[in-house]
Amino acid sequence: SGSGSTAGGAASGSGSTAGGSGAAPGSGSTADGAAAGSDAQTQAPAADTAKQGEAGNTADTGSTGENAQAAGAGQDDASQDKETDNASGSKEKPAKKGTVLKDSKNKIRYTVLSSSAKAPKVSFKASLNKKAAKVTIPQTVKIDGVTYQVTAIADGALKNHRKLKTVVIGKNVTKMGSKVFEGCSSLTKITIKAAGLSSKNLNKNTFSGVPEKAGILVPAAKRKAYEKLFRKKGLAKQVKVEKIK
């Protein structure tokens, strides 16, 4: 009888053990849960890493944008500097007073009268092309990067230009030397745009040699005064002085 109880208890105990073994699926669930948790933890750092990557990309993009803006600003500053340089004129220094300059394109020589940095000036010395039919004495001339005002015409500047028919004198001319047009036998028209000519700045023979067939055109407001002045400076009575139209 006692043995039966022991056997039954043992069986019962065995059954309990077996039952306990039956709880193994629960252990499986625990293992799965742990694995899932482990996976979740692995994914979480990965997600954090991805976010950090995105943040890094965003920061890089921001930096790139800022750099691009900075570069753009630098280009704008450079453009402004360039415009400022252009607006302020050439950085080249004017030649020294007395220097003879050559305008190779138009075959003309000039003499420097003033080397002032703000307003350098030259005199029209001579035209080197004696076959030219027209000569223009400009308001300004640019040589070696410097722009000079042309304020005077030298003695005999156009002497013996026998094929010359037309001469144009720019607005800045205030002084003219002796016998500027002597020997210009084909000359038919002289246009004088300058309004600042005066008796003290013209030689007594400035207009000596201008052919009688020629005509002189001057600013309307100066016609009468210039006609009287030019006659005193060698202009023949037959030469007409008229208004620029």
Structural summary, described in words:
It is a single chain. This protein is of the alpha/beta class and 245 residues long. It is built from 3 helices and 11 strands. The longest helix is centred in the first third of the chain and has 64 residues.
Topology overview:
Blueprint: H1 2-22, H2 24-87, E1 100-103, E2 108-114, E3 121-127, E4 134-137, E5 140-143, E6 146-153, E7 166-169, E8 175-176, E9 189-192, E10 215-218, H3 223-232, E11 240-243
Parallel strand pairs: 3-6, 4-7, 6-8, 7-9, 9-10, 10-11
Antiparallel strand pairs: 1-2, 2-3, 5-6
The helical percent reads 25-40%
- Shape label: globular
Tally of strands: 11
Q: Label the structural class.
A: alpha/beta
Most strands sheet? 6 strands, mixed
Mean pLDDT: 76
Distance between the termini: 153 Å
Taken as a percent bin, the fraction of beta residues is 15-25%
Number of helices: 3
Uncertain runs with pLDDT below 50, 5 residues or more?
A: 1-88
Instruction: Please write the string of helix (H) and strand (E) elements.
Output: HHEEEEEEEEEEHE
* C-alpha-based Rg, rounded: 50 Å
